[in-house]
Write a structure and sequence with these properties.
The chain is α/β, with parallel strands linked by helices. The chain is built from eight helices and five strands, in the order βββαααβααβααα. The termini are close together. This is DNA polymerase III.
Amino acid sequence: MRHESSLLNVIDVEATCWDGQPPPGSVNEIIEIGLTVVDVLARRRVSRHRVLVRPVRSAVSDFCTELTGLTQAEVERGVTFAEACRILVEEYEAGERPWTSWGEYDRRQFARQSQAAGVAYPFGYPTERTHTNAKAVFTAAYGLRKKPGMDHALQIAGLPLEGRHHRGEDDAWNIAALVLDLLDRRAWPVTATVV
């Protein structure tokens, strides 16, 4: 059944990370989900959200805190990954709405972690139908040879970096600004707004 929606979820995750290889037994785990809801018809960002997620197989390293600003104490107050997925589905219609991220990392990390945790993938199937790689769309729209990082893309588009880079909530907000830029350029795929 096709569900028409003018709302698009823009997702950016931060995960545990290290300067080099992870400690034995540790894996990358989502610790923050940033989500901005975009109304593609009204051409505006309508809300921004943040879900902190408690890691179970790794800890926040000093390197990760330096990069994201997130601390182990902060993410310990977060919800489980299963609860975070439930929130995405129930509060933000993740299984129904189309969604986007900057590149494929976020989609792949959700798929890996969902499988490892035995939690249903929150974004619906098939993934190609529900997810749009905003970095690939931007690269094509601007005729670039190399795919830029989000902060560089903002510079190319003449948009400011709002908030802290590598903070999920702020990055989702900034990616949403790039989506709006692509919508204004008529470069955003129509199939990315109708599921």
